[in-house]
């Protein structure tokens, strides 16, 4: 059975919104986009490629899929990050999209989301990675479909924004790896307890 791995940049106050840029996701009046930049370390990029080697699919909510597709689809062949993201099979969960033509190798999941994702997990293959996609992560966590959390925890408090873990969720986890970086970021990997 395949594993679903949630891979996120997260602040100390559980925020995952707009880590990459000021205009990435301003929903709800969020004004701290790009909060990860001052803490970059090359080990973060190296880990990205390790994680991609262990996966063969991405599972994303509509908004994250659109943001990623807008960034990666136009990248020329030969860009290492673009090649890794564009080559993967993508599954996008949305009730409003009617086509996935905006980003290659994408499949739309519109109905019976929990059942469809259970079926994806049952297929042979490598890990399925989710990033961003707060609404989808909340739903999958509530249905106990997430096998691992791979979190880059940043030494910053953002004071608001979209959260990784929803209110009211009780989720016992077991730490399987911890790796601090000189920039103050800590990789924390957890599986279900």
From TrEMBL:
Gene Ontology BP annotations: riboflavin biosynthetic process
| Residues in Bacterial bifunctional deaminase-reductase C-terminal domain copies | 2-187
Could you tell me which InterPro entries the record lists for this protein?
DHFR-like_dom_sf, RibDG_C, Riboflavin_Biosynth_HTPR
- Tell me one GO molecular function of this protein: 5-amino-6-(5-phosphoribosylamino)uracil reductase activity
- One matching Pfam family is RibD_C
Identification of the protein by name: Dihydrofolate reductase
